[in-house]
Amino acid sequence: MTPRVGWGFDAHRFAPQGRVLMAGVVVEGGRGVAATSDGDVPAHAVADALLGAAALGDLGALYPSDDPSWEGADSMALLADVVARVAAAGFRVASVDLTVIAERVRVAPHREAIRAALAAVLGAAAGSVSVKATTTDGMGFLGADEGLAAVAVAVLEG
Fold this sequence. Notes:
30% of the residues lie in helices and 32% in strands. The radius of gyration is 15 Å and the shape is globular. It has one domain: CATH 3.30.1330.50. Strand 5, helix 4 (111-122) and strand 6 (129-134) form a beta-alpha-beta unit. Helix 1 runs parallel beside helix 3. It is an alpha+beta fold. It contains five helices and seven strands. The strands form two sheets. A five-stranded mixed beta sheet has the order 4-1-7-5-6. It has a two-stranded antiparallel sheet with strand order 2-3.
């Protein structure tokens, strides 16, 4: 079967309290992310990339933010559910490429932990998961350090 490719994106503004999670890894404390769930932006981007590759809809359709039952939801558990849906549709994750976009949040000290956490949930080898970071050099809401974003590409085999 031909490989399937999906693209995912997520962005959230920062909140005055809480913590910043990336694939379940705490990368910053003292401020959080405004979200219905735990606000794990990278996990959301990867989940949407997987759903897109499998043509299974999107995160908002499956776990709507206006549904109070998702308040504080563990985004890595949601990602695990997405992986199960993808598997039920006859696909497996071949690779994921994730880029986090943030001005001051540092990914590098946590890169290997993020890769390992994603690989474990995806059922993929860590070498099949890429985690990168960039800034917008001060431009826009990301550059003003008002929030963070992530983009992901997923390749599925079936």
